[in-house]
Amino acid sequence: MLTVPSSPSSGRKRPTIRDVAREAGVSYATVSRVLNGHDWVSPEAVKAVRDAIARTGYATNPHARSLATGRSGSVAFLLTEPQHLLFEDPNFSVLLRAVATVLSSRQLMLILMIASTPEERTQTMAYLAGGHVDGVLLVSPHSGDPLLGQLVQANVPVVACGRVLGYEESISSVAADDLAGARSAVEHLLGVGCRRIATITGPLDTSGGVYRLNGYRDALLAHGLPVEPGLVAHGDWSRASGADAMRTLLERSPGLDAVFAASDIMAAATLPILREAGRTVPDDVRVVGFDDSGLAETTDPPLTTVSQPMQRISEEMVRLLIDVIGGRTPLSITVPTSLVVRSSSPV
């Protein structure tokens, strides 16, 4: 770590790490570890160092720090979905905001990157392989995306939100318990008397799409009910796909009495379609989503949904990425979900 040089124009010597260490009553090495975001520092020492930084007015020089550590001090938030979904799906914006907050607390910059087309993937890979960021927080990865293998081959530190199908052993991930969450949603619907339960899946080249569909199937089979192909329609996380899937389900299975959608935005899209078809929610058809990102409270009626703790997921993603940057072995973390019951499917 290099300290900021004194300013010849001010005549005052700028505070150094040693000044911070002296003020905090800790070692130079402890201050350096806190500034570099390492986890093996006691909470008391972290607080003492941060208080000392505030009192002394110490500030790092990002350029000098980069030269000294060989790191850029920045992390990419890489979304592999079309750009419009960043703004349409509140789940992505919630995750982006939470990750930015956690990175800021560790004095790391966030760079937003979107790579949904072949041209964008090529440009993105060239930038990432060039060492312009220390690591990548990968959001909504799709199996079969050539970018995944390129990231691994280039030894770019990566942590994904959701398991990366086909790369479970080589790419670290943090995921909500999609299987158990979906199962709890369908068990809730079974518990309130529904028997013709349809589902709108996410993309089946994503772990969220696969595991939430598996949870739906597991719950039905555990109650002795068949998994009917006519009650399964596929979406791509978007509002339009949720509406199209709901129309398809009504045509195939007009007697359905419940819908479990693999995301809140797709669940929200079913409500006007059901209304147009003369079906009331929840009296005729109950609807349950997945995410609880904020949208669920604003629909009419408000959605019963599976809540995944985005703040916890964000914190774990950043913590794991710092470990991977430091050379630790990739691993995966599963975060528990919970069912939030609202008016679209009351108890």
Brief summary of the model shown:
By secondary structure, the chain is an alpha/beta fold. It has helices spanning 17-24, 28-35, 43-56, 62-69, 83-88, 90-105, 118-129, 146-153, 178-191, 207-222, 239-252, 264-276, 310-325; strands at residues 74-79, 109-114, 135-139, 158-161, 172-176, 197-201, 232-234, 258-261, 286-291, 304-307, 332-335, 338-340. The strands form two sheets. A six-stranded parallel beta sheet has the order 2-1-3-4-5-11, with helices on both faces.
Shape: elongated
Helix-and-strand structural type: alpha/beta
Give the termini separation: 58 Å
| CATH fold name of the largest domain | Rossmann fold
Approximately how much beta-strand content do the residues carry?
15-25%
Strands ordered across the widest β-sheet: 2-1-3-4-5-11
Tally of alpha and pi helices? 13
Low-confidence blocks of residues:
1-11, 62-70
Helix content: 40-55%
Give the CATH architecture of the largest domain: 3-Layer(aba) Sandwich
Mind explaining what this structure looks like?
- Helix content is 44%, strand content 16%.
- It is an alpha/beta fold and 347 residues long.
- The protein contains 13 helices and 12 strands.
- The protein has 3 domains: 17-69, Orthogonal Bundle (434 Repressor (Amino-terminal Domain)); 74-175 and 312-336, Rossmann fold, CATH 3.40.50; 178-309, Response regulator (Rossmann fold).
- It starts with 16 loop residues before the first helix and ends in a 7-residue tail after the last strand.
- It has a 6-stranded parallel β-sheet with strand order 2-1-3-4-5-11, with helices on both faces. A 6-stranded mixed β-sheet has the order 7-6-8-9-10-12, sandwiched between helices.
